[in-house]
Design goal:
Layout lengths: L1 H11 L19 H9 L3 H16 L2 E7 L2 E4 L16 H15 L1 E9 L5 E7 L4 E4 L7 E4 L2 E3 L4 E5 L12 H4 L1 H20 L5 E4 L7 H17 L3 E2 L5 E4 L4 H21 L19 H26 L5 E5 L9 H13 L5 H7 L35
Parallel strand pairs: 9-10
Antiparallel strand pairs: 1-2, 1-12, 3-4, 3-8, 5-6, 6-7, 9-11
Helix pairs in contact: 3-4, 3-8, 6-8
């Protein structure tokens, strides 16, 4: 990684040329953006949304195609950018980092550190979004600064999430919904403090026959606090009555607040609420599990995939472009899958070998014909030599 980054760093120079508005400059203490985003990801629904999006996108197969007129041809080779895109990252980790930056900061910034002989990027290192500042004074010609040093625009790969008109930098979901996420963080902190330092014991034992003095009252108070912290029933007095305590209305409201907050955070990221601890208002049955997977691909993942496909395709040479195979997330039951294969074969828009590849089966000699005769051997190539035609020797 050091050798790959050395040339771009030398080209950038060693003098910081950050604009005066590009604050904060190097100073003591943590950067506010880092603290805010890292604290937000400690909230379970935020972590779950980011994990689901990053894991799902990074685990999809990436396929390379070439436009051939109105048709597209799938290419069998894999370019280096889709095989070893960074010095220490494979494609999964590389895509995972990009989606992580997008989901928390709203932007992913990559530095091109290696190109092929034709000038196309073959290695891109993702930068920490908090180390990048963009001068948006002229949105059509933005100026990028990394660690206070101006970076040539052609060496930066910028993927924004949601961009307002007239802007270049995407909105940060953590910053835009800081209040909503803050409610969840405050509720989590309250719950932790409640269990650590307060709350209600599970039950009490008391009597009404004896009047206690201040010293005994202090002793009972200390025993009460010890009982709260240990979670054991409190016992005091001589004539015992046992009272089991129920969940108080305040505790019920706390639980409901956490559930509502998870639902709101799921809505921010477009993830199904029940996947992150929220409620969708409906019930999940086996009959609609496949439909849920389809909805997840169409309404949650597709915008992320298209955004990444557009940027990656611009980095490919000529008429080549990139597509994610989202069908890998939708695994229908065996009968439905075979029925779909039959429709594709009867409509002649898939060959047997394409269907067999989907089912991880080896190709057959007759499988590239859209209307084949199963078991038939391929026709021999035509030849002009009359001795090679006719019956075998």
């Amino acid at each position: 990684m050091g050798r790959a980054l050395a040339a771009p760093l030398r080209a950038l120079g060693a003098v910081s040329k950050r604009a005066i508005t590009a604050l904060p400059w190097a100073a003591g203490g943590p950067r506010p953006g880092v603290v805010q985003a890292e604290r937000a990801v400690s909230l379970v629904p935020v972590w779950a949304c980011v994990r689901i999006l990053a894991d799902s996108v990074a685990s999809l197969p990436v396929q390379l195609y070439r436009r051939n007129g109105a048709d597209r041809v799938r290419l069998s080779y894999i370019p280096q950018l889709l095989f070893a895109p960074a010095a220490r990252d494979d494609l999964f980790q590389w895509l995972h980092k990009a989606v992580y930056s997008l989901a928390l900061r709203g932007n992913a910034y990559g530095l091109v550190v290696r190109r092929d002989d034709f000038g196309f990027p073959t290695m891109i290192e993702w930068l920490h979004p908090d180390d990048v500042w963009v001068d948006e004074l002229r949105p059509t010609m933005p100026v990028f600064y990394w660690m206070g040093v101006e970076v040539p625009r052609e060496d930066i790969v910028h993927i924004p999430w949601m961009v307002p008109p007239g802007r270049v930098v995407g909105l940060s979901p953590v910053a835009a919904f800081a209040h909503t996420i803050g409610v969840g963080l405050a509720a989590t902190e309250y719950g932790r403090a409640w269990f650590d330092n307060g709350g209600t014991p599970p039950a009490t034992m008391k009597n009404t026959q004896k009047t206690i003095n201040p010293a005994e009252s202090a002793e009972i108070r200390d025993r009460l606090m010890a009982s709260i912290r240990s979670g054991k029933p409190l016992v005091y007095g001589a004539d015992w009555d046992f009272n089991a305590l129920q969940v108080s209305p305040e505790e019920s409201q706390f639980i409901e607040t956490m559930r509502l907050n998870a639902t709101q955070i799921a809505a921010i990221y477009g993830v199904a609420p029940e996947m992150v601890g929220g409620e969708s208002g409906g019930t999940m049955t086996y009959a609609n599990v496949e439909q849920q997977a389809i909805n997840f691909v169409n309404f949650t993942l597709r915008p992320w995939l298209v955004r990444l496909e557009s940027v990656l395709s611009r980095l490919m040479p000529g008429r080549e472009f990139v597509r994610f195979n989202a069908d890998a997330l939708i695994r229908a039951d065996t009968l439905s899958r075979y029925q779909a294969h039959n429709l594709a074969l009867s409509g002649q828009w898939k060959t047997p070998n394409e269907v067999r590849a989907t089912e991880d089966m080896a190709p057959v000699p007759w499988g590239d014909d859209p209307n084949p005769v199963p078991g038939a051997a391929p026709e021999p190539a035509a030849t002009d030599d009359p001795e090679e035609e006719g019956s075998p020797r």
